[in-house]
Amino acid sequence: MGASCARALAVAGARVTVVRPPRLAGEAWAAAAGMLAAQIEAGPEEALFNLGIAGRAFYRREAAALTDSTGIEIGLAQDGILQVAVEEAQVETLKAKVAWQRQQAQRADWLDPTELEEGWPWLRAGFGGFWAPEDGTLDPIGLVEAFLADTERRGGHIVEDRITGLWREGGRLMGGLGEQKRHPADAVVIAAGAWSGRLDHLPRPLSIEPVRGQMIALDWPKGARSVTVYGDHCYLLRRGDELLAGATMEHAGFATAPDPAAMADITSRLTTIYPAIAAAKPGRQWAGLRPGTPDGLPIIGPEPRLDGLWYATGHGRNGVLLAGITGELIAQGIGGEPLPEELRLVRPGRFWDW
Ligand SMILES: Cc1cc2nc3c(=O)[nH]c(=O)nc-3n(C[C@H](O)[C@H](O)[C@H](O)COP(=O)(O)OP(=O)(O)OC[C@H]3O[C@@H](n4cnc5c(N)ncnc54)[C@H](O)[C@@H]3O)c2cc1C
Description:
Blueprint: H1 2-11, E1 17-20, H2 28-31, E2 35-36, H3 49-70, E3 81-84, H4 89-103, E4 109-111, H5 113-119, E5 129-132, E6 136-137, H6 140-153, E7 157-160, E8 163-169, E9 172-178, E10 182-184, E11 188-190, E12 209-219, E13 228-230, E14 235-239, E15 242-246, H7 260-273, E16 285-292, E17 299-302, E18 309-313, H8 319-334
Parallel strand pairs: 1-7, 3-13, 11-18
Antiparallel strand pairs: 2-6, 3-5, 4-5, 8-9, 9-10, 12-15, 12-16, 13-14, 14-15, 17-18
Helix pairs in contact: 1-6, 1-8, 3-6, 3-8
Bound molecules: flavin-adenine dinucleotide.
Residues 1-2, 19-21, 24, 27-29, 31-35, 162-163, 191-195, 213, 215, 246-247, 288, 290-291, 313, 315-321 line the site of flavin-adenine dinucleotide.
């Protein structure tokens, strides 16, 4: 989120400094699968549906420019995501989701089991599936590198330090306090993911708690067509020659060590949609900390109690999808432009307003 905000601000002509610590265990961007699942992840009548669609559209619009500018590939694939109904009870829900999303002018299809078997014979077709042909994936590590490289190319600075808190004097925001030095700024964007609430001198407590996600990687099945598939609380996608699968949702504080029980859980859920996985040899496993809020929506926008302070945090499960658009919105806001009405739902004051 910080890299995206920095790049968008640099595009808008601001002088930007990104203050980042040496690599920190559990950074979500480094652990993420990278799905742009605006439609698949959307609940029925999803409040932030349009923001997710705009988030996905951002990458279509900006991927080529980012790569041209930096030489870094972000691995954007726009080849759809499939959600298999593993229980009969899911069929009606998914069909309703197809109908509602079509009413929102999005492409969405219900595929019956025969259609699924024809398209993806190595999958267990279950009771059919929800097909979102416009959803896709990208490589989140490439994305962060590209945002930062483009920020630097546009005159921004990347400084290695750990911010301990806000630098405030006489009721005014002066910048950020780092372990190494003070970082003066007219505007400060808090984009420290699950760690955002741990900063000193915040004007209000930040309602963010880490939600650990564990992932595994296996060899991609030889000859199998690339596809991103959701099953029962699990998903799989292809990156290079690997099959990435995840992800757990756990409240485990800031603990980042992966545990074998999670690997077994992901593997067994995966087996219901991809039976051949049972024979695959275990591969890599890792964990990351999503910044989770009580209502599952991010915190984006200005702090009403402190001029110059902005938040871009709390994006939970969909922070890769929403990173690009969040950066643009923050840059718009800091530049004095009005923000879309929909952002009312993610306003920073909604939890601790006393
Ligand atoms: C296993 C897993 C799978 C996921 N899959 C997807 C997916 O497929 N699609 C999707 O859209 N989202 C996915 N997500 C969610 C996504 O990764 C997060 O929502 C997103 O990374 C949040 O971005 P962030 O910048 O707020 O937090 P982070 O990505 O965690 O980044 C926070 C940054 O703040 C820095 N920081 C922390 N403390 C300080 C400090 N004191 N001073 C300075 N810097 C600091 C950290 O070093 C880090 O770089 C996944 C997450 C996980 C864990």
